[in-house]
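Hello, quick one for you while I still have it in my head. A protein chain has come my way and I'm curious about its shape. Can you walk me through what the tokens say about the fold? No rush at all, and the record is pasted right below.
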Amino acid sequence: MEESREPRLSVNTPDASDEDWLDQLTPRQIVAELDKYIVGQDEAKKAVAIALRNRWRRQRVEEELRDEILPNNLILIGPTGVGKTEIARRLARLTGAPFVKVEASKYTEVGYVGRDVESMIRDLVDVAVNMVRAERENDVEELADARTEERILDLLLPTPGSNPTVGRPTPLEGGEGRPHVFVVGKGGAEAKGVSDGDDEAIEARRMRTREKLRALLQDGKLEEREVEVEVSQTPSIEGMVLPMGGGVEGMDHNFTEMLQDMLPKRKKRRTVSVTEARRILVQDETDRLIDMDEVVNEALIRAEDMGIVFLDEIDKVVGERSGGGPDVSREGVQRDILPIVEGSTVQTKYGLVRTDHVLFVAAGAFHVSKPSDLIPELQGRFPIRVELKSLGEEDFVRILQEPKNALVHQYRALVETEGATLKFTSEGIEEVARLAAVLNDQMENIGARRLHTVLTTLLESVLYGLPEDDLREIVVDRDFVREHLSAIVDDADLRRYIL
């Protein structure tokens, strides 16, 4: 693969090009970026940072050896809510790589009803195609808008002698076979007959009228005007009966899309407002400007060389080995996952995709099992194992304040939309963290997710009362927290259902 075809980063860094940022993306830099959103778990951050940097290093190895360097797949071990999923998600956003999160428990062994493991790669390719297409749409956005404006003007002011909607000649309406020009008034453009046959004068008047219409259009004064556009309709396959019998219900999503693409599309003329016409025409112009073959080619390269699959709940397909029952199916799922992780070719609707260099990050709590219970072949495909630590009260205090997307910042922003201010004192934050830690100890430990339930319950009355209440400043201190949550926390039956 050529170096120029590497995916571009989605991180916005001032005064630095994408290539410069890619070079600066050292393991320390990766950890620093992850620190902005994830508290603690330094060992896991280091492990994923090294795995990511090795992918960049591989691109600079001589081609003969490049294909031999395989990714270091990881297993993240830890209870729910400690940051396993967030680490993988932020890693994908940091690199702009195709990323898909799947649950191992949703897959079944071949021969059983359920999703087959190859669908995770098809999902990854779909994400890659959408990602590359979105980038191309941004590149052609200005040109598509400009072309759309011209087409809307053609609809509002047709060229004499033609209908821009269907592209065939129409009778002229000037009286005695003479052409007409359009004059802009309060009601828009109106046809007016002309007594002379001077084509140059007619064209000059028409262009002046067109520029006046352009000014009105750009000022938003023609948005409610109705125009006629031609749109394509994709036929629905719901209720179809296949020759083999049965319908499309339960069929693989990729197969249904392939079937839908094969059906002929119908054209339909609709009378819509200028606003709706702009949306339709922008999409049409964007489709014309984007070369989908190029998009698919780039997407397949990204999926193969930079794709990340986060395989969650891997412990759910692990069990004590026995002679029969559901454990056989669990081990069967592992054996089906093995060739995907090991490196195989998967058929997708966009073409064949090799999984040799896809990075797989597995995660699981492993409460009733351990990673060594995986089949030996699959264990060998996940050489890096990192154990994430359980979160306590001190971690919760940091999680509430330090990340860029901290819950305190989120709720503060929500309240500000109502014209009020929300302030958290340090004592209030500490009390919220303490209650969350206590609840995790007394009930199921769901990690940092407990903070969501606590804060939602704590601020329920505030969010319900705004904006009718006269509150303009809400201060969340220790007394506020205890007043609103003490009754629920002390009632064991009540907190079981609310917190």
Notes: The chain has 19 helices and 13 strands. The domain at 3-132+296-387 is CATH 3.40.50.300 (Rossmann fold). The first helix runs from residue 18 to 24.
